[in-house]
Amino acid sequence: MKKRQASKFYPYFDSEEKSVIDKMTGFFNSIVFKHQPILTDFLNPGERDILNTISGNDLSIQEFGGYTNAEKKRVYIAEDWVNLTPSAYEITPCEIVYPRKFTQLSHSAILGSIVNSGIKTCTFGDIITDNAGNWQIFVKNELITFFMEEIRRIGRSQVKIRPIAVNDILHAEDDSTDATIIAASLRIDTILSGISRQSRKTINDAIIANLVKLNWHGVQDSNIIVKETDIISLRHFGRCQVMNISSTRKGKFKVVLKLWQTTKNRQKN
């Protein structure tokens, strides 16, 4: 295998992702020269897509986020395939203990408190709930003590981070809703305008401000045509997945979406 040049991959992704491309290229080149496997931090789907693009079929890439269907995952990169067990990814599931009789937690409040404490988002995985007041988070093994000592409060609530057994991991509830829009075109700005009920100008401004992503990558062109299975996100609104596209008798498009809105926007509706 030959060394990869990060600059060769810049044209394939948004300019805002150059640092990620550099990092993933560094992983590849490190394995080529040192012949040692790498266990990454938690990577989001966009970061993993970049890693897979750079690696091609030249490396073995396996991933796990602590539970089935995790969004953020740690990735084990090696020259050859190795049979791994979940423990190899060094992830500890934890529950967030708090006075449930007197308060409620939200994903945004939990994430905000963790980030404001100085903890990097790459050091922990998904934050999940069963929508019955139970919350859990997945953390790198070596940082468990730090999380337990540093995360003592979320919002106005005192909390404790407590490791749990794998058998106690929640069945994460899907809080998405189904939505259908009729659109004149399948341009990304038209679809986002229809689902968010915002003007196309507002959506185009969001695209210019790098607030829109398609399949976890930044978007700078409002003319992009979306297709089935695409995932579109708009910061401060939420994200949606295109489930089905069909034509209407009047020549427009009926687009069926699965929608995950931010808590604030769900309350508005």
Walk me through this protein's architecture:
- With 269 residues, the protein is α+β, with helices and mostly antiparallel strands.
- It is 26% helix and 29% strand.
- It contains seven helices and 15 strands.
- The chain has helices at residues 18-34, 45-55, 107-116, 144-150, 188-196, 200-208, 263-268; strands at residues 38-43, 60-64, 73-78, 91-97, 124-129, 135-140, 153-154, 157-158, 160-163, 177-183, 212-214, 217-218, 231-234, 238-247, 253-261.
- The strands form four sheets. The chain has a six-stranded antiparallel sheet. The protein has a four-stranded antiparallel sheet with strand order 5-6-4-9, covered by helices on one side. Strands 1-3-2 form a three-stranded antiparallel sheet, covered by helices on one side.
- Helix 1 crosses helix 2 and helix 5 packs across helix 6.
- The chain is globular, with a radius of gyration of 20 Å.
- The mean pLDDT is 93.
